[in-house]
Amino acid sequence: MDDRKKVIVLLSGGIDSTTTLAIAKNLGHAVYALSFDYGQRHNLELIKAVKIAKKFNTEEHLVFQIDLRSVADSALTSQQTVPKERTLDQINTGIPATYVPARNLIFLSIALSWAETINAQEIFIGTNAIDYSGYPDCRPQFIEAFQKCADLATKVGAEKNSIKIMSPLSGLTKSEIIQKGIELGIDYGLTHSCYDPSPESMACGKCDSCVLRKRGFDEAGVEDPTRYVC
Fold first, then answer.
1. Model pTM?
2. Do the beta carbons of residue 123 and residue 166 sit within 8 Å?
3. Is the Cβ–Cβ distance between 163 and 190 less than 8 Å?
4. Which of the listed residues 10, 47, 80, 102 has the most CB atoms within 10 Å of its CB?
5. Spatial CA neighbour of 168 closest among 126, 225, 229, 212
6. Domains in the chain and their CATH numbers?
7. pLDDT tens digit string along 89-129?
């Protein structure tokens, strides 16, 4: 009998979600990976997510299709220009055009439904509130609020067997996340971060996500395996 704890991990194919997946696996959990095809311009991340899920031998990898382009105004779901060549001060100020309205709220709600259906006990999400692009749905306050919502909105919650929302990277910098991943044996060459990759699948090197990725690897003292246009 398999007595491992069953958990769902939201897997985008980036550094944070991949590290979160590795953490869940390292804890000995039976991991079910959940990715989203939501109409994002950088859907190369889904190709990466599939490879990562296979690499970590997840129990199942569900790619859920939900087209947010008709309801979510964002540079990631439209022809808006992706902000580039911004300084760290600019990245850390305000909410950028790459914010997808309520994305994590939507993703966690779907994960919660799947978790209750398959009797998963926890949902892991790689939200990070230190080295990130200012998205409000990455803050610890949001995770805490969603936990309360999950407890109220589900049958298991009403029966006092709530599904726990786990955010193990919340207090870590990008360099600390990378260092943790290296300790867990992650090949970050499998991951993708760029919001605006080239037709040849190379990272632009200038969007906020690329800037934070480059800085994270530099501060971690680890070679970045990413192929950049510049």
1. 0.96
2. yes
3. no
4. 10
5. 126
6. 6-220 (3.40.50.620)
7. 899 888 999 999 999 999 999 999 999 999 999 999 999 88
